Amino acid sequence: VQLQAFGGGLVQAGGFLRLSCVASGRTHNLSIMGWFRQAPGKEREFVTAITQTGGSTYYADSVKGRFTISRDNAKNTVYLQMNSLKPEDTAVYFCAGRSFGVSVYDYWGQGTQVTVSS
Known about the structure:
The protein is an all-beta fold.
């Protein structure tokens, strides 16, 4: 499975961006999909995740109410809608996937830079 993230960029505080993550290869192996981020000098942190059917979603407290994760399995794509962006959301955002029956994210995409100016 290969994951490729798109959609990063520079935006002013209060603005919005939508990230996309396209999966290719043996995508039927993927269950939970998630987004993580890593700011300069900080460890990578969990942002949000969604189950295979989209029936359950999970969010870090820092993004609840502002970010929305969704997925379109027909397009093998996961989206991250980010609204009301804050400078502290500035980071490299990574999409990740978990295989069925695996408790860790075993597939990772390349990062996409999100920069929020104040």
